[in-house]
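User: Please write out a complete single-protein record containing the residue sequence and its fold in token form, without commentary.

AI:
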Amino acid sequence: MALQWLVLSYVVAAEAAVAILVTLPTPKLLRDRLVYFVSLILQPALFIVPFAGFQLVDIYWKNEHRLMCTSDVCTAAERDRYEKSIYKAQRNVVLCIAACFLYWSIYRICKYQKDLKNLEEVEKRYKSK
């Protein structure tokens, strides 16, 4: 069961690294090539959004059907296990939201960079006339 969270955490780490690379101040030629390369990767990487959404639904379903341990009948070990599962679920929700947010951020950054390049080309054409 932990494999999907391991994959999701690696994807979030990779997305964070790509977001840092795309936003670093670099020479124009390198930035354009980097944005082009990242844009090619973005479409196949879209799988992360439905995957994270499915994981969020799974967390919600497990939370709704979890046995509550709030009475005095529960032992200390049961209560600790219950609290640990709650903390893991909260961590996993943050991981899913971070994956979706980072994907969206990278997409918007690349789109802005492409729009900026197009505007620079239009400006060059008007200046040359």
